[in-house]
């Protein structure tokens, strides 16, 4: 998770959840996120909770990590059981980072086994691993598939060398089709992450990256506008005037180009920044976040959400390892959301989905904004015609201005 969490309230040392967390749990899917907080090199634009080998030692080291995270999985199973939640095998597992594939495949396999032991992993579960194209081999991908991984999400970012250089990416663009081929040979689904709006990238560069991604025939593409995060090297370079900040009009042109090129190749958007070749290719794990399902986030800085209780772990891997080693909760703080906050969260996330948001989720003040949003071409006309029973679906212009739409819907 890139952003700084709110202060929140303390979490009991045994991680006990309030009784409300169990209400309705049988109807909610359960997902598991495992954060792997290591990268070979820190990219200048990235503020994810991740560390290079030289920054860490002792209990926070890469070598110790799988054992520590397996400890949190066992701890999690106890917390959920004591809170009276029904046993639910994980419907999805997502190893994110950082760079999960910096760990040996055997460590990720060990963590999947620990998840099977703690909660079970449902038959047919989606199991994703994020990977940097530099950090996999044909053999490691085969090992991951044999361990039960079903899909791999590669951080491609761009196919253009001068753009990759500004992003501090170390991989050769030619490596991407090669690693995708290895993943396919191993029987894995493939997603590619792209970034647009990098300083110095023109529209032709972005088109080249989209074409190169499509030439790999991935099942899924994520395209993110470059965010200049405070405290990163990129932010310092922008402040010093060395590189230009992303420009809103340029970002809009690039989003539209992405949507045109991906749609023409048969990829449909299902979330503002995500396109899939078939409905089954959508990332079920991320859909769980956007739909407000339950998930446990394992690892330093990882966030969890169970029945309106949201908590986040201590951020530093050494502090995290110390908490797990002592047998207590690794949570730093939590928030127990009231009904109004839960509804606001459903609006914030649900409106970004192609399936739209039930208009009935909106408070009167939000619903009153719909005619204006339709008039501005940000929301499809359907909710006006069908009233509260309808769904609020963003137009393409609305997807570009999704944050502004949310502000209008949550006055
Ligand atoms: C954890 S990384 C993916 C795996 C691997 N670490 C890598 O970068 O290849 C998740 C994705 O977040 C996106 N990302 C990170 N920082 C970003 C930023 N400042 N702006 C836009 N996208 C960003 C990148 O597309 C990246 O692929
Ligand atoms: S490799 Fe991925 S997680 Fe690591 S610093 Fe770069 S973008 Fe961030």
Low-confidence stretches: none
Q: How far is the first residue's CA from the last residue's CA?
A: 26 Å
Radius of gyration, whole Å: 21 Å
Ligands bound here?
Answer: S-adenosylmethionine, iron/sulfur cluster
In terms of topology, how is this protein built?
Elements: E1 30-36, H1 62-82, E2 90-97, H2 105-118, E3 121-131, H3 138-147, E4 151-157, H4 161-166, H5 175-185, E5 189-196, H6 203-215, E6 220-225, H7 233-239, H8 248-264, E7 268-271, E8 274-276, H9 284-290, E9 294-298, E10 303-306, E11 309-313, H10 317-325, E12 331-336, H11 339-350, E13 357-358, H12 364-368, H13 370-375, H14 382-386, E14 391-392, H15 396-400, H16 402-409
Parallel strand pairs: 1-2, 1-9, 2-3, 3-4, 4-5, 5-6
Antiparallel strand pairs: 6-8, 7-8, 10-11, 11-12, 13-14
Helix pairs in contact: 1-2, 2-3, 3-5, 6-8
Iron/sulfur cluster binds at residues 39, 42-43, 46, 48, 50, 97-99, 132, 155.
Could you characterize the architecture of this molecule?
The protein is of the alpha/beta class. Helices cover 38% and strands 19% of the residues. The protein contains 16 helices and 14 strands. The strands form 3 sheets. It has a 9-stranded mixed β-sheet with strand order 7-8-6-5-4-3-2-1-9, with helices on both faces. The chain has a 3-stranded antiparallel β-sheet with strand order 10-11-12, with no helix packed on it. Helix 1 (62-82) runs parallel beside helix 2, helix 2 (105-118) runs parallel beside helix 3 and helix 6 (203-215) packs parallel to helix 8. The chain is globular. The two termini are 26 Å apart. It binds S-adenosylmethionine (SAM) and iron/sulfur cluster. Residues 45-46, 48, 96-97, 99, 130, 132, 155, 157, 193, 195, 224, 226-227, 229 line the site of S-adenosylmethionine.
């Amino acid at each position: 998770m890139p952003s700084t969490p709110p202060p929140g309230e303390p979490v009991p040392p045994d991680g006990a959840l309030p009784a409300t967390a169990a209400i309705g749990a049988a109807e909610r899917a359960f997902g598991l996120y495992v954060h792997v907080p290591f990268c070979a090199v820190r990219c200048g634009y990235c503020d994810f909770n991740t560390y290079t080998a030289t920054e860490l030692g002792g209990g926070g080291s890469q070598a110790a990590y799988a054992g520590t995270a397996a400890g949190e999985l066992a701890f999690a199973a106890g917390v959920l059981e004591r809170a009276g939640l029904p046993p639910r095998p994980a419907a999805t597992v997502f190893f994110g980072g950082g760079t999960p594939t910096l760990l040996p495949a055997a460590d990720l396999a060990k963590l999947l086994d620990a998840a099977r032991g703690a909660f079970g992993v449902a038959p047919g579960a989606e199991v994703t691993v994020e990977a940097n194209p530099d950090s996999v081999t044909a053999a490691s991908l085969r090992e991951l598939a044999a361990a039960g991984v079903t899909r791999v999400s590669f951080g491609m970012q761009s196919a253009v060398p001068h753009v990759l250089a500004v992003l501090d990416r170390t991989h050769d663009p030619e490596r991407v089709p090669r690693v995708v081929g290895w993943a396919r040979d191993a029987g894995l689904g493939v997603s590619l992450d792209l970034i647009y709006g990098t300083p110095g990238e023109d529209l032709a560069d972005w088109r080249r990256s989209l074409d190169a991604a499509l030439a790999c025939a991935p099942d899924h593409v994520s395209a993110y506008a470059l965010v200049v995060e405070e405290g990163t090297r990129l932010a310092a370079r922008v402040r010093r005037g060395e590189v230009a900040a992303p420009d809103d009009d340029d970002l809009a042109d690039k989003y539209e180009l992405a949507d045109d090129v991906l749609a023409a190749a048969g990829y449909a958007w299902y979330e503002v920044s995500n396109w899939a070749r078939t409905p089954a290719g959508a990332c079920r794990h991320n859909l769980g976040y956007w739909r407000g399902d339950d998930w446990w986030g394992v690892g330093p800085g990882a966030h969890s959400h169970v029945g309106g209780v949201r908590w986040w772990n201590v951020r530093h891997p050494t502090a995290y390892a110390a908490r797990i080693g002592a047998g207590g909760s690794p949570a730093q703080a939590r928030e127990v959301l009231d009904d109004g906050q839960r509804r606001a969260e459903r609006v914030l996330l649900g409106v970004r989905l192609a399936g739209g948001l039930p208009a009935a989720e909106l408070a009167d003040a939000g619903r009153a904004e719909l005619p204006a949003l339709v008039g501005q071409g940000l929301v499809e006309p359907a909710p006006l015609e069908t009233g509260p029973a309808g769904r609020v679906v963003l137009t393409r212009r609305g997807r570009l201005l999704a944050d502004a739409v949310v502000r209008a819907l949550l006055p």
